[in-house]
Input
Amino acid sequence: MKILSTLLLLISLRSFAQDATIFKPDSVRRVIEAVQITSSLKVEGLLNDAEWKKTKPSPGFIQIEPYQGKSPNHQTDVRVLYNKQFLYFGIFMRDSLGKKAIRATDFKRDFNYMQHDLVNLSFDGFNDRRNAMAFATNPYGVQRDFLSFDDIYYDFDWDGLWRVRTTRSDSGWVAEIAIPWQTLRYPKTTEAVQNWGFNMYRNRRLTNEISAFSPYPRSFSSFRMDYAGMLANLQPPPPKPNIRIQPYVLTSYDRYTGFDAAVKPEETQVKFGGELKWAINPNTVLDLTANTDFAQADADRQVNNVSRFSVFFPERRQFFLENASLFGVGISRNLDESGGNMRIQPFFSRRIGLDDSGNPIPIDVGGRFVYRSLKRNIGAILMRQRGVGDTPATNFFVGRFSENFGKQHHIGGLLTVKDRPDGSNIVGTVDGFFRLGESHSLNTLASYSTSARTGKQGFSAYAQYFYVSNQFKIWWTQSIVTKDYDPELGFVSRNDVIATTPGVFWWYRGRRLPFKKWLRAWEPSVFPEFYHQASTGKLIERTWTVYPVWLNLQSGAYVGYSVTPTYQQLTEVFEPLGVKIETGQFNYVRHQIYASTDPSRILNLQTIYNWGTYFGGKLNSGDWTLQFAPIPHFSLSGRFNRNRFVEVGEDKTSTTVDLYSIEGRFALNPRLQLIGFYQRNSENQLQNYNIRLSWEYQPLSYIYLVFNHRGFQNLQQRAQTEDHAIAKISYLKQF
Output
């Protein structure tokens, strides 16, 4: 540990001396001027309306990647108009290769930005330099939108009401965008003219060249709004309360096999319900839901887990995804692995309306209140879950408060209550985030739980320090979860543990880097993890994951190799994929190879292959995903996961477990799509599949046809299946 601490210090000091590229925000902000018009534009992606000629050309963009600060090789022109209803953008992404340069693999809303050309707009209507509303599109008019808070919390599944059309030509592609003022958030003011914080970036995916209207360090993102420019000369209408209602009607046929007599083998039903969103003012939003339904939500995928940590399935239901960042307090496993395998979330919305197997439980009624301002954020969720079978009717409450101060600091609290007739579970949490400069930050949390049913109390906490520059990312995360910490409305990957998870990540792009035409960066790293049992203080797990090789190519492809010496002290029996491993001490070494071709290509392959010793035997694991996307209208991917155990555990078990998946997306346009996936697991010979036809017949109003089949085993290892055929129509009206 002393050696690691010294290494972290030396690298940090060296990076301070070398890194002059993390610049401070410019005191003079770059400006784009908007022009007021009285007419309405027909959004077609052509920019041939006479009104566009009234605008002034925008300042030239500045390159962020791969050469920060240089002029881009392909220019972007931006023009801005507005009337009483809409804020319009006309954007021309110039390209010498024209349509031949365009990359886009599908028509999925909130598409994967690594697979598409895109342009992204970010608005800071309150000029707090902390928060942003983001709207992005690709060359086919597919939408991606989300909310950003302090560039650390994101609501990626927020869907705004806006319109975009695009065209493609031999000189580039054009996006014409109309955003209703009602969708945007800005203050009520006596000033006749407003100037908003604004930034915009473009990714030319063929060469991974990112350029931006207002420059920012390449290790940050365009959502660090203290680096934003300005959108000037706006005269928006005064914000007023607006209401969106979205009722639905649904009919379904359900069939169950393998269940006990209490479950009807077949059932047909008709269901009504809906949601109401009331924007009381620019800071305050109230959401109400009745007879809530999530038939259109993407289904969970099976995962074969061979680690000692619980699998985390992400939330996929739209009502809970919006404003999730406000309530999403805790430490999670990010792509940079800064928390190691530990995840501590005092609130996890999947605990509402779903059982432990992911089966839906009806929600009778619920509401969410959110207030956000420059100084503070307040949120509350109240839900009533219907009693079903052995699960009694349950009330849920989540309350959140955070106070902003200084330069992107905040402290806050979270309270969750799960109330059932047999007792309540209550969890109280305090947290804080402190940005200690452009490159330094500290994230902290402490949480306490008490459960009336068990009479037990527990505690969890963590502190996480980050240093980020254009050359290094360095972190140290210290966390603890006691044995009896039980957030019934949350998620914890492991109990009775003290976790120490530091790490160092080096991005090298120096002069000695070879093959610069193909190679963008060499990124070696080390991620040690140490886990002690909280109740005894004994070391129960130690891993050193070292990446001597990680090469990022200019195309977006990558290849990497890691080695992980591991020590495990099992204090209880462990059964990965049915292979029984008794308690005891184990030392083994795992090797991993990671590789991906360019994910934006017509045919792309991603693979992770692991081999080496494992709990007294050997384990070879492979995961391969192949995608074929000849045109954005059609995408087909297949995935194969294999775990081959050789003489593992006390019984020297040798077995192979395979998981097969195939997924397809077929789209006439971004608003009419057929999506399906199929999975089969050899461990239990069970199959899951889901087919969904989605038609957005007008903005955010949908018709869905869904067929879902789930196979699983109950606690008695008895096979059960569910089949659901669903037709649903929803209609959105905004007042």
Summary: The chain has four domains: 31-234, 242-279+693-734, 309-506, 514-685.
